[in-house]
Fold this sequence. Notes:
This protein is α/β, with parallel strands linked by helices and 159 residues long. Helix content is 36%, strand content 31%.
Amino acid sequence: MDAFESNLLRGGTRLVADLTEFFRDYKIYDTIFAIYAKGNTRNKGLFLSRFFAWTVLPNYHVSLFCVDEGKTLLSTEKLRGWMDTVTKVIDRDELKWAWLVVLSDRDLSAQIVSFVSRYDRKELGLAVASTTSKQIVQSSNQIGRSIGSQLKLKKALGA
Length: 159
C-alpha cells in the first residue's frame, strides 16, 4: 500500500490525470477507503505543455479509490458494494471517470477474476491485485486498462 501511494504522490498518473488531493482512511458513506485521491485531467507541466493543456485538453474531474482488503476473503458482493459507493461519488461529484483499486493479501478467486475482467462500464476503471501472488486483474474498459500502465500497480507490488 505504501509503495502504491508513494508512486501516486510522485506523479505516477501525470500523463492521464493530475491527482492533487490525497486522503488516507477516508470514509465515504459507510465505506472506508485506504486511499482516496482527487484531481483533474488538465496537468501542470512545462510552459508549452501547460499552454497545450489549457487550450486543447478538457478539464475533467477524476478520482482514485483504493481499498486494502488484507487477509479477508474478497467476494463479489463486497466488490459490488465498493463499486456502488464509487458510482454514487461519480454521480454526486460529477466526475468524468474514476479508478477503483482493491489490494488483497490472498490469492484471487476465479469468480473475482471473471467478474473484474468482464466489467466494462465506461466511467469506472476496476483493478484487483493480490500482494502475495502478484496477480493483477483489470476491467476491460479503457480506464481499467490504464491502471496497469499509468498507476504502475505491478511496480508497486514488486512484480
